[in-house]
Specification:
Helices cover 74% and strands 3% of the residues. It is an all-alpha fold and 289 residues long.
């Protein structure tokens, strides 16, 4: 019986390991090899670290990196705060039925196609969109402005879209952590005279801190791969104000004459930076425990 159990265990683990190797490790290794090749289209040749040297002199890469880091610095705390706040509100709801309804509503953006909601929000910021029409109700003399043609407008649009699309997922992630807390903990906090505000930040937050830390790592990694929202809403403009590293990779491969080697080098750059940032977050989280 034990041998059969071990056999099934090996089958499941081996199958999962094979899929991970095939669709994660192999493409990563291939991208690493490709990053050392230069050329256009399929005419590639090995040229050492030429692509990596080009990264530091490419103004678009530097701009895309700054934009991506800027989105990460802005979006990460906002999404985490909103997610924790919503999760705490839902967790305090007494009715399990209402909790389920709220959870489904909040999770809906996560299962919506990024193309669909990006087009919807893009329409809001155009000259004939909702924002201009709403403003026109209170100021009939106001000019209709395409906010996506302004630097701040395009950036704000992408930030709003990402907050709407991602907050629900991380809310449910944190809610799952809150629901695992023993109810006796809250009863003891109430006996000790802690207010709901102090209970949230002195009891709930420390307990679900590992979930918050995990959410932070996942969220930051996702921001460094930000692509669909930028492509649909602003196409990286105006004047590269919203271009990200992932979208620049797309341009190098499919809009310009293909430069697969250089695009692979940028992909490796994303992998290294996002991995380093995630490692730093985990270490900082361990130090504050």
């Amino acid at each position: 019986m034990s041998s059969k159990t071990n056999k099934y265990k090996f089958t499941f683990v081996g199958g999962s390991l094979f899929i991970i190797l095939l669709f994660t490790v192999v493409p990563l290794l291939y991208s690493l090899v490709l990053s050392f090749q230069v050329g256009r289209g399929s005419q590639l040749s090995y040229d050492g670290f030429a692509n990596y040297e080009r990264l530091f002199s490419d103004a678009i890469v530097i701009k895309a990196l700054l934009n991506t880091v800027g989105f990460a610095i802005l979006l990460t705390p906002i999404v985490l705060f909103i997610s924790f706040f919503l999760a705490n509100c839902i967790n305090n709801v007494k009715s399990e039925k209402l909790k389920s309804i709220y959870s489904v509503i909040l999770f809906f953006p996560s299962i919506t196609s990024p193309v669909a909601y990006a087009f919807f929000f893009k329409k809001m910021f155009t000259a004939d969109g909702f924002l201009n029409r709403f403003n026109h109700l209170f100021n009939p003399d106001a000019e209709f402005t395409n906010y996506l043609l302004t630097t701040d407008g395009a950036r704000i649009a992408i930030v709003i879209v990402c907050i709407w699309a991602w907050s629900g997922y991380f809310t449910l992630l944190m809610l799952s952590g809150m629901q695992s807390i023993n109810p006796q903990v809250y009863k003891i906090a109430k006996i000790d005279g802690l207010s709901p505000f102090k209970t949230t930040f002195k009891v709930t937050l420390p307990i679900v801190k590992p979930v918050v830390l995990l959410s932070s790592v996942i969220l930051t990694g996702g921001i460094f791969q930000l692509f669909a929202e930028v492509m649909i809403i602003s196409q990286g403009g105006p004047e590269y104000a919203t271009i990200t590293l992932s979208y620049y990779i797309y341009r190098l491969c499919f809009e310009y004459v293909p430069q697969f080697g250089y695009a692979a080098a940028i992909a490796i750059l994303i992998f290294v930076i996002s991995g380093t940032v995630g490692f730093i977050q985990l270490k900082l989280g361990e130090q504050t425990e």
